[in-house]
Design goal:
Layout lengths: L22 H5 L5 E5 L5 H9 L4 E6 L2 H13 L5 E5 L2 H8 L5 E7 L17 H8 L2 E10 L3 H8 L1
Length: 157
């Protein structure tokens, strides 16, 4: 599979993410971390990063196209408090996020896998939220949005 190269200075190359990186060095400050899982085209992270310049945002997506578009958006806005990584969420979190270090986690409209037989493929559920909790700082914000009632109920479960 040929991926379009991402040359943005705000893109984190995979070789930098084999172990927990020095986030303070990457961002040039020690601001608290926020994580957006599934950044899509980068609209949401760009807006929230402008509202919260006191947070360092890590936007991850499994798809190269989303990472590329997010980088173009944040580069155009010169948002220095956002970095983008192409990775699978669980693996990235385990390797790269220190326990109790996330001040905010955002997951907007993940793939709902609406057919009952496919629901086991959903990334977010009560088990995933419990997994995520160990990486969130006390009092951290968790934002989850979906258009599917049963998905929201599974997550709240």
């Amino acid at each position: 599979m040929n991926l379009i190269p991402i040359t943005s200075p705000r893109f984190l190359p995979p070789d930098l993410l084999t172990t927990t990186p020095d986030w303070g060095l990457i961002f040039g400050n020690d601001n608290p971390l926020a994580l957006e899982i599934g950044c899509g085209m980068g609209d949401f992270v760009a807006n929230v990063a402008r509202i919260h310049p006191d947070l360092n945002f890590i936007a991850i997506d499994y798809f190269n196209k989303g990472c590329l578009k997010t980088c173009k958006r944040i580069d155009g806005l010169e948002l220095n408090n956002v970095r983008v990584a192409r990775d699978e969420a669980r693996s990235f979190i385990v390797r790269c996020i220190p326990p109790e270090s996330l001040r905010m986690v955002i997951i907007n409209c993940p793939d709902p896998w609406p057919k009952k037989r496919h629901r086991k493929r959903r990334l977010v559920n009560a088990e995933f939220v419990r997994f995520l909790a160990q990486f969130m700082a006390p009092g951290a914000d968790f934002h989850f949005a979906t258009d599917f009632d049963d998905y929201g109920e599974d997550v709240a479960g």
